Model the fold of this input.
Amino acid sequence: MIGPSGQSNGLRREAFVGLGAIVVAITVVTATIVLTRGDRRPTASLPVASNASGQTAPRGAPPAVWAVLTWTVGDPSPFDYPGVTYVSDAIWWGDAFLAVGYTIDEARVSGRIWSSPDGLAWQLEPVERPDLVFDRIFVVGEGVAIIGAHRAPDVGEEAGATSLGLWTSTDGRTWAESVLPDELLGHQHIRAVAAGSAGWLIHTNDLVGGKQRWITGDQRGSWRLADVGSTFGGGDVFLTASEAGWFAFGTRGVDPAGVQAGDPADDRGAIWLSSDAEHWEAASINRPGTGVHQIVRVAGGWIALGTDHEGCRRCIDHTMLAWRSNDGRIWSPIEIGQSEMNRFGGLVLSSDGNRAIAIDTVAERVRVREITDGRTFRVIPNGFDVSVGTTDLPDFSRPYIGPMGVVAFDQVAHKEEPVRHYVVPYLGAAGGPPSP
Done:
């Protein structure tokens, strides 16, 4: 089982491992999605903790900068079904984008896998996948893997049974489900997950015994418990894969004399690294703020994002922070600026291992920045193609980078059928100036 119980119209959800819509500029949130009765939209999600490839791209010269992005609307018809459809994650792999998600229709859920060679024309795989949720997609070894859940239909007010699932593919078209050890992964709520060249690392809650577990898996399908000891103090951390293992990051309290334990003034941003998921080394962060919520790989090293709530966890406009590191052990501040609050939280960031793209808003206009050298965020002029026409600000959940530009998704409701939500894909094509 993934996530705490929530409810929706006709469907009471055990929340799924979610990375679809992120709220990284507001606060460090717990690693759950909750679909609530009434609107059936995620109210929180796992922050994006890595790009799907595990960010193990080799170091080298930074990629060429993009002069401009021109946003064009793709075909939404492959994302339009009765009920509510979500795109929860996507990657560029091989010669195409792969996107995963699910549709909730009354008391049932169906998994979805889409592909596109250009970010505009999308195709749904021709396989019905009832009672499945596809939540994250990763590059692992020579193939790709999806982590999600089996979700039986609800019966009245009784929530359907949920169990974790893992599917792998060597071509992005044919998928085989892996056999997961029930004694390790049965009855588990995933709090954080990452995958890369070192395999899998999953942080869970045992829904039967109530204890937390750290579970690692390799590419051969061997799984084991990892003993992290008291490294994280039992708190929530986020995970991302590195070339040699893993990063864990989040908030750590230092409890100075005279300060009540758990006092928000005591929060400190923290990063740890490990090669075996059991022995963790604390990194050094200059001006750590009060939380670290994302680490991404770029050609010039590693970039981390965080916030400083300045003693007010409940405030929604925390000061944003960013750091860079060559080796993951020593982190130095870099300038990130402040994002305006908007419908997608404030700032969304994604990386392909060489280039990172940040999207936020300034004066109700989409702002796109890239960082390729690990030091400077550079604004990319962007605009909407004339074919788009007059448009509201898209509710981009996360950018996904491909060789031709950036794909982002916006979930919208049918005007004639407001309870039916579909997804509109956008491509920010890299190249010449926007059309006049």
